[in-house]
Specification:
This protein is an alpha+beta fold and about 90 residues long. The chain has one domain (about 20-90): 2-Layer Sandwich (Ribosomal Protein L30, Chain: A), CATH 3.30.1390. It contains three helices and three strands. It has helices at about 30-40, 45-60, 70-80, and strands at about 20-25, 60-65, 85-90. A three-stranded antiparallel beta sheet has the order 2-1-3. Helix 1 (about 30-40) packs across helix 2. The radius of gyration is 20 Å and the shape is elongated.
């Protein structure tokens, strides 16, 4: 006598971030201007935006966000319209 069992398998979906939003340092924009852009465009907290701005300043550039290309490209456009150097790079 055989008993047949049906198994339900739950598949965990993982979110992969395929791109990074890179903000570049310059000698034109102020810390406050970059911080404001990160808060408004990337939805960073004040503390997160301040930390990112320090990394940008001292390292020359910094990945402020990871995600899919479409979302990050929209953020890139909004930040670049503020006169801040920004690119989207594939991971």
């Amino acid at each position: 006598m055989f008993t047949q069992f049906e198994e339900e398998v739950l598949v965990k979906e993982t979110v992969t971030h395929t791109h990074r939003l890179i903000v570049h340092n310059d000698n034109i924009n102020t810390f406050d201007w970059v911080i404001l852009a990160l808060i408004e465009v990337c939805k960073h907290s004040m503390e997160q935006a301040e930390q990112c701005s320090l990394f940008i300043h001292y390292k020359g550039k910094y990945a402020v966000k990871q995600g899919d290309f479409t979302s990050l490209n929209n953020m890139r456009i909004a930040i670049s319209e503020r006169g801040i150097g920004v690119t989207v790079e594939e991971i």
